[in-house]
Amino acid sequence: MKFLLWILLLSGLFSSIGCHLKKDILGTTENPIKLHLVPAVDAKVLADNAKKLQEYLEANTPYKFKITIPQSYVAVIEAFGTNRADIAAINTFGYYKAHKAYGVEARLTVIRYGLATYQSQFLARSDSSIKTLKDLAGKKIAFVDPSSTSGYLLPLKTLKDRKIEPKEVVFAMKHDAVVTMIYQRQVDAGATYYSPPQDGKLEDARRMVKTQYPDVEQKVKIIELSDPIPADPIVFRKDMPEEMKEKIVEALLKFVATDDGKKSLDLMLGASNFKRSTDADYDSVREMFRQLSEEKP
Question: pTM of the entire structure?
């Protein structure tokens, strides 16, 4: 009787250990790979296309996935710190913070309009006296928000490098709001993201208000562009197995090579492709943020 009891106890123990180990294996149904997408478009559009991405990844890798859409890039960074994120599409500043705090690694960079880099643009009204960047000295300038790379940090670095001091700085919180403030003469100038025209069509931040202001391209002009920096990366938790990272990277590259994948990527991230990248590709960005951090009072 005692022997039988021991057998039953050991069977239960091994069964429990087996279930525990299975649950711990990353990429299983019990412990899927957690992929985060930062919200940048309509929530339903993002969710619908995220589902397509999940189905493709699960069909083309041996892993199970769970795709989550957090409220902000800050939530993504926090998720890496609490092991609730394995992979994420994140903005450049978010990557800087996540790498510094938790060592996350860039493996892919998004390509937009044929470029794996992006720039900021300085805008002013076409009928203003502002003709060059140096004319911004002593002026009222609108930026997006303090954490926006293209809408604040990159243009701020450009101004500091030129030793140009605005009289007043305001944060409009959105790229289109910056353009609107310039159009309505609420500020002298502003900074937003820049994208080159495609087939003669406007693609920079001014296009976002063209329905409201059809003549915005004529009334609001580009003064100058910033230097380019690497575009947004796809990042991985540092201690994920290398073989797993590589299989997922290969699957993502194959996904965007399909017509459906290319369309989904455009709708989710406003991008047309990925390119392989490494953390070293973002050294210049890290140096820029470091300098700006040191210069803050």
Answer: 0.80
Instruction: Report phi then psi at 140, rounded to 5.
Output: -90, 120
Of 198, 225, 202, 224, give the one whose Cα is nearest residue 214.
202
Give the count of domains, the chain: 2
Q: How far is CA 288 from the centre of its chain?
A: 17
Same domain, 210 and 239: no
Does any domain span residue 3?
no
- Segment among 69-73, 207-211, 243-247 with least mean pLDDT: 69-73
Q: What is the pLDDT of residue 17?
A: 45
* pLDDT, tens digit, 9 for 90 and up, residues 91-125: 888 899 999 999 999 999 999 988 999 899 999 99
Residues 249-266, mean pLDDT to the nearest whole number: 96
Measured CA to CA, the distance from residue 290 to residue 292 in angstroms comes to 5
Single out the residue in 174, 198, 229 at which a domain terminates.
229
CB-based contact 223:122 (threshold 8 Å): yes
Query: Among residues 54, 80, 243, which one has the least CA distance to residue 88?
Result: 80
Burial class (CB in 10 A: 0-12, 13-18, 19+), 158: buried
Domain-located, residue 18: no
**Residue burial 7-31, b: 16+ Cβ < 10 Å; e: rest:** eeeeeeeeeeeeeeeeeeebbeeee
Per-residue pLDDT at 70 = 85
Q: Taking each helix axis from N to C terminus, what angle separates 92-102 and 73-81, rounded to the nearest 10 degrees?
A: 20
CA distance 119 to 149: 9
